[in-house]
Amino acid sequence: MLNFIKSIFTAQEGTQPDVPHENEEGIVDQAIYPYRKGRVYYNGTWWPARCPENVTLTPGEVVQVIYIENITVWVRPFSP
User: b or e along 10-47 (b: 16 or more beta carbons within 10 Å of the residue's beta carbon)?
Assistant: First the structure.
């Protein structure tokens, strides 16, 4: 069951994200829990956001934008 839930929120093999955005930063506005939506401030506005990693991102945390899929920004913890 858990693998089914994970598959819903992760990119499937052979699919491409809508827009790649490597090395751009955002700030977490609403906590992002594993496999759940949160919100980030990115590029001058607020976006629904998800993280493909099993981590919790807290408000104020700087994140790295991976790509944008529809209206959702996919992010990961920032690593300098």
Answer: eeeeeeeeeeebeebebbbbeebeebeebbbbbeeeeb
